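Our preliminary data section would be incomplete without showing what the modeling component actually yields. Below, a chain of 376 amino acids is followed by its predicted structure, encoded as tokens that our downstream tools consume directly.
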Amino acid sequence: MIRWMTSGESHGRALTAIIEGLPSNLEIDTEEINRYLAMRQSGYGRGARQKIESDTVQILSGVRNRLTLGSPVCLTVENKDYKNWEEYMSPYGADVTARRLTKVRPGHADLSGILKYDQTDARNILERASARETAVRVAAGTVARMFLRALGVEVSGYVRSVADISDEKEYSFEQLKDVKNSELFMPDPVVCERAKRRIDEIKEDKDTAGGIVEIRVKGLKSGFGSCMSYGEKLDGHLAGALMGIQAIKGVEIGLGFEAARRRGSAVHDEIYKENGKFIRKTNRAGGIEGGMSNGEEIVLRAAMKPIPTLMRGLNTVDFSTGEACRAATERSDVCAICACEIVAESTVCFALAQKVQERLGGDNMREIKERYALLP
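Predicted structure:
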């Protein structure tokens, strides 16, 4: 099965991902990876750091002449801001008394991490807990996107809401084609402008905003996942992957929580047979039934909480003195919902790629394509 691991700190030298289990002869397009890295840094409400980094990927191993070799692929994204932090972050000797953070932030990993890892400086926690790590996760997820695309599976998405400004309309997969041209990845320009104004208001209050993203998967055949082993359910695998993203506090599939408010007749998708194929005329299940894909579009939504680093700070305690204080501030965003959408897409790509190869096996792309083509 395809596996991955990331490493790196927010202000360390670089972020790294190692992908193990990729088949050979998968074509890798570094320009596409860099496009998704750029989209991760875009969006209305982002902070100053996005102007510093301009992320690009470097492939250190596992690819030759744009094709995977079947060996582990190592990707790295440089932290260009490291030059300003080397004195404090160098693994070879650093001034750990400077840039020390003890005014732990509510909603962040600071306090729990200090206690768990026996630290006295929250910087040793926040540097890894930071969503900066998701840059290299996007790089790895884009490789998985290329794997899925080679089989005819496409992944897209959009921002459904920012704070309390929500777009309740439903969009086809094709209607999302140009949504990334929007400043907030929102299809409706009127709703987008309302959301931008709300971000401006929240920024004026020195506060932060979250939102909801919707991820769609088109072209995945039925039968991925399992109803026999509950640890192998596709919905559990995808939901777990999304919940592993920093700041995600809830995941819905299909109707999600709305299903609990409706009668069964308004929840379950009736089955028909046309031209020898089983079809559903609705997709309230979000493409997954009994823990398995059913051939319809997969529809996922993830709720992102507001960023816990506020410019005005919340009430907290200084870990070193035990005294009440205001939480520390770090350079941050007001709203990073566009970044969240790209990270969520990338994470879904990787989670799906794992399930696809788990079922199909195969050491090279020719074998995998042939096996996928044989599925009903």
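The chain has ten helices and 17 strands. The longest strand covers residues 154-162. Preliminary results of this kind motivate Aim 1 of the renewal.
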